[in-house]
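Handout, section B. The chain below has 200 residues.
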Amino acid sequence: MAKMRNRLPAEKRRKQILKCSVKVFARSNYRKTRVADIAAEAGISEAMIYKHFPSKKSIFIEILHDMSERIISRLREEGNREQDALEAIRNMAKTFYNLIISHPDEVKVQFQAISEIDDSEIADRLHRDHEDYMRFIGSIIERGIQQGTFRKDLDVGTMVLLLDGVGVFIELMKLLSFEEQFTEETAVRMTDSLIELMRA
């Protein structure tokens, strides 16, 4: 039986449950994981889990949202720190690469979510998260057009999709253990290739 851990404030307990859930989902998958498995990893009762989350799905969806919030927050930091749009996009690619490399369990959970796309709530969460990424990337490209760094006739929507696709590809390379071949430098070179298509 799992050893019960000390009482925690509600917000810290929720974070603990989410952190332990990532480990459990990554070791198995969304379908096979039980709330009892998460409780055992956290050293608490199932009842305690249900005190904070109504279901396993709600835990899974919150993990996805938390991951995306942290990623978009870091991308905004990079994008807003560097005023030159070209350099901002390059720095965002480096930041995203390093976030993915340093959080392998979260990458597994992200791809598990893609395999659960027939679930409308999971699909909606993924869709909204990618909309947030793409909206921000689009704002940086628009800044570049205003600065004269990027072409005025640029199809912003297409470039946003291509840059978002680089992000998904980075995640896939991590998942398939291609870190030696697919380095930060590789990710930047891919991004630079797209930047060259946009450059004024």
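Note. The first helix runs from residue 10 to 27. Compare this with the example in section A.
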